[in-house]
Amino acid sequence: MTIKKIGPTTLERWVDSLIGQQRVFGAQAQGDKFAFAPLTQAARLRLDYDVAVTAPKAFLQPPCETLLRFGARGYESVLDTEPFVLFGVHPYDAVGILQMDTVFAEGQPDIHYLTRRAQATLVVCDVQNASPNVFAGCMNTAVLEEGGDVLLTRINDDYLVEGRSAKGEALMKALASEPEAEAGDLQFRKMVWDHNRQLLRRHELKVKPEDLPAMLDKSYDHPVWEEKSKRCFSCGSCNLVCPTCYCFNVREDVRWDLQNGERVRTWDGCMLTEFALVAGGHNFRRKKAERYRHRYYRKGKYLYDQHRQIACVGCGRCIGACVAKIANPVEVYNRLAEGPR
Amino acid sequence: MSQTVDIHVHHITRVEGHGNIVLRASDGRIEKLEWQVPEAPRFFEAMVRGRSFEDIQTIVSRICGICSVTHSFAAIKAIEDAMGIEVSEQTDRLRMLLHYSEQLESHSLHVGYLVAPDLLGQKSVVPLVQSHPDVVKTVIKLHRTGNQWMEALGGRMTHPVTIKPGGFASLPTEEYLRGLKKTIEGIVPDLKTLAEVVLSLAPKLPAFDRDTEYIALVDPTHYSFYHGGIGSTDTMDLTPVPQFESVVNEYVSAQSTAKWCKWHRDAFAVGALARFNLNAELLLPLAAATAKKLGLKKGCCNPYMNNVAQVVECVQITEHSIQIIDELLTKGLQPELPKVQPREGEGAGAVEAPRGILFHRYAFDKKGNCVKANCCIPTNQNHANIQKDFEALVPQIIDRPQEEIRLLLEMLVRAYDPCISCSTHYLNVEFV
Amino acid sequence: MDKPRVAIFDFACCEGCQLQIVNLEEELLDVLTLIQPVEWREALSDQSDTYDIAIVEGSITRPEDEEKLREIRAPAAILIALGACATMGGINKLKNNFAMDEVRAEVYGKDGSMPHLNTLPTRALDEVVKVDLKIHGCPINNREFAYILRCLALGKTPAIPNYPVCVECKMRGTVCRYEYNEICLGPVTRAGCNAPCPSAGFWCFGCRGYVDDPNVQAAREVMEHYGKTMDDLKSRLLLFGSGQEPTS
Amino acid sequence: MIQSKPAMEGKDIYLPEPAKLLKVEPLTRQEAFFEFTLLSGRDLGHLPGQFVELSVPGIGEAPISVSSSPTVRGYFEMVIRRAGNVTTALHRMEPGSILGVRGPFGTHFPVDTVMKGKDVLFICGGIGLVPVRSAIQYVLHHRADYGRVMIVIGTKTPADRLFAEEMEKWRKHKQVTLLETVDRRDETWTGAEGVITRLLPLVQVDPPKTIAVICGPPIMYKFVVVELIKMKVPDESIFLSFERHMKCGVGKCGHCQINGIYVCQDGPVFNFTDVREVEEAI
Ligand SMILES: Cc1cc2nc3c(=O)[nH]c(=O)nc-3n(C[C@H](O)[C@H](O)[C@H](O)COP(=O)(O)OP(=O)(O)OC[C@H]3O[C@@H](n4cnc5c(N)ncnc54)[C@H](O)[C@@H]3O)c2cc1C
Ligand code: SF4
Ligand code: SF4
Ligand code: SF4
To answer: Residue A111 is part of which domain span?
Structure first.
């Protein structure tokens, strides 16, 4: 696979040409924060962003998406088949997407996600500015060792552009005449990676991520669940901002003719009170502490048991999103590491 | 021709809020003739005491669902007056732009949904859909445009949330403004259509003139909805807004839960016709042409013509909005973060609601909590005038069939576009 | 199937919720395919005493309102409370933080004792009669209103969220107001509005009322973290929450 | 652009296939009996204990167990309790209506493996009889393949009893032991009264030879399992069927998760050894 070195103007020209060809969603300033949004001109792109308010999973599993349409002809699938580029995804968010890929492909594959995913080209960009809560360095997700379609890394004022898949190479066709990266550049890039592994540690996890499942296994009755969850609003913010949370609800609505309509799926979260409520009124996780514990177990153990990957990529969004300031996984895991009490 | 007339319109329909018309007459002699307002009073001025200046707009916006933007602005202007806050020119222009959306929404609702059925001989807008689909389509388009515009700039369709002391909670994008300009240009033909309809129906408007004092905001630079001092057709002088109590002279009437008002005479009128009568020469070209076409002339004192003035104002709004947007885009939108330090003080604010001039006054303590409030609502200011109109009109029509009298009286009330739900918020005239 | 006959009534309120129905614009015609309005003072001239569904806006503040509401309830198979004033007393309940005589005197001065200016502490509809369905918000969200109407037509119980506004903020990608050090009631307020206020840069002031199990105690503790006082919180909780437990 | 067409590659796991309602009969105040057939004419192809997702256009979808044995061909049966939107809408449907079906999903009672040659003890509380009925039918269709067949059924009141006629047949079946109780008796009831656990000591089981199958309301499991353990039935011989909130039926939506396991995929039928340490399970 090729690695090109391009200057800022080339980058801008390249992005502008992509915008002409397909939908491009890129990291942009939104007030004093950053968000992925439809990119209308390369000049708006902010690859120096610290963290995107909403995880880019939103473009693969939208907050609200139509699964089926129904009417006189019965139910029909609705699939999103238009290609697009996600430009500037941070490595930890890319890991989140790769985990979602596993979930939606395994067992009975979900073609709604997979179709949209197949249309996506993932342009990953190494982090240039650490956000206030990121701890990807502790979760081994500060750098994307493999995966994604293109990897951008800033080297002084230039960018190294690495094609990581056939799709990525195709996107880079326009860069064919640009110079290849030299050994020195690659050396520099390694330094950037090493630097990022250290930089993205605004919270310091005292256990190795791979030790979390075993630790959680012993912590089911730990007092921390009760203590922390006392302040929980059951607002689900920690779920919804998470790049690896994919749970959903399904609802149905009709048009005014009451005959035609749509079945949609929306984001859902296990922290919400009614997540495990069944008909008849029994709630299988009635208590805040039960729901609170479930979230950590799901991230640190249940999904790990299934896929051998910790379902927390250290983006730190939940830490900021929690109004009650109780959703910091590092705090909780460190506390568990200290043992009971 | 002698007859006994006994009309009691309990809760007149197709107006905002509850109002009654009572007429009893025999042999042409009027025994009882009253415009009553039995709406439940809501005591906003008492309720806001103790609440922070940050929350006042949120509360008083709820005085009225149909002029919530206007109430918000009157409150914000009063708060800014009390705390000595100056807003940027950009904020000022954006506020005018937001304010206009409500005028368009309210005027098109009033003329199209509430008044048009009378003129087209229907009981409501529902049968109009069948009988006059094009009219309804036009009205819906205007109404929706006003609403979406309001939602974009105000953050919500009703009870806006972007209006804060000192500025905006969030700004629109320049792209949005460019799009809005296109949208507004797009409704100009619809307003022409509406004007045509009104023109064709104008002969159905009763010819009834009664010499009236009209009161509205007046600003030398433009046809004002948002700026200026208090003008009257009875005087050349402008009264500064902080002295509004000396203009409205509110008093409690036994036939109403709403207060009544008077200034130079025993009643005065506010609203689109009042604004027109005081500002007509400041109309922009298209609006001026529309007025001319519709036969609306400065000095008109036929209350039924208020609806015609509303159509003229819709045109004025579109022209002026386009100017404002151009101006904003030329300068480019600058991010602003309003930060306000509360301080002790008292202030007043006035803006034109679609149905007439609206005044708010508040006093705050050191922490910025409200200690006193006073709101004077346009519909209140019109109540006495409606009564005077009744008294002048009924003798002229007393010989007509009862149903016709009833319709003419209802139409008269509707012409004022009364917003009775918001008019029943009384105030203590004595202010500390 | 005959279309249900629907009557719309209002008590003390700003009529903003009825306006939201009008704001459905051309969809109002679709509404008419599902229901037959028989009384709607704000929009129609007709008045009627027989109907299946009564939609009632506004709160109860006078003895005569109470009586009228009972009359409205009697023939209705379903009574729907429309908007915050009807569902929880709304902003009108701020009045209940004062004594009624004092309120009257404050507003009307010496005229305050005139009989037609009588006022009682504000009550929500369900404090007077049985309410079958609540449509929340000040004003209501007309998309939700439309959805609820369609559900009724299908014989389906509408799904009214019982989770906080924060959920909708997150779905919209709205930056939390707490990040700007403002007090937002989103975490204890029932969603369903699609969080227009935080998305427009303003805090949620709780116009849809609390979720079923609001963690108000946590909100108290959170204030400290954001350098705010209990008074700040209480003042905001009192805006729409004056009538709701547990604010005081 | 959003395209509307059937899944391009692979099948859409969320797309229901049309099924026709053949028969509806009320059973109790809350439950009704339903008979469906797939419009395509193929058999559902389920195993006893599996469930499908039933769709009513405009209303939504709900997981419902198949109550008939796969040995019954050409149609399948269900019993549906009116609990919310979908189930209420189903109760209003007329024969001939077209609905949507996805599935079958989930695990099944091990009728062809572990249960073969063994004594089987069915313990059903209330609507728990519905999924178990398909296993009972299956076992009775292949009666010779099993040892003793014992059925223990508990219902709230006599009026809530499901399949009264069929139970009568089982009661009369020479090679079946049926014990029944109601929580609260009324004048029509001459049988036992009290909770289901009271009946268990009455069934004489040979623990190493017995396979127990349990389905009922959440609270029943706790007591029944304790009782079985007392009776020395080995943990690995106990099978339970669980019910949880679920939206997809295919292990994606997250709702039915009990600690680390998914009811829709790892269940609804579990071996007790797989769930005895799962804190949220019972
Ligand atoms: C594996 C399995 C097998 C089942 N078999 C049967 C059966 O054979 N017969 C039968 O009558 N019932 C059965 N149920 C229960 C049945 O699925 C629920 O009663 C049904 O989903 C309620 O749907 P509804 O639309 O009628 O109610 P809704 O209006 O959706 O909901 C009412 C309440 O139930 C909760 N709920 C929503 N969706 C579900 C869900 N999928 N599962 C449980 N609760 C939910 C809601 O949160 C709400 O509180 C089974 C459930 C499962 C999981
Ligand atoms: S964000 Fe915080 S308050 Fe909200 S559900 Fe998560 S832990 Fe609870
Ligand atoms: S702004 Fe308010 S509603 Fe939105 S996430 Fe923050 S606390 Fe919740
Ligand atoms: S965000 Fe809060 S205040 Fe705004 S509409 Fe929703 S519930 Fe009402």
So the answer is: 3-62+80-199
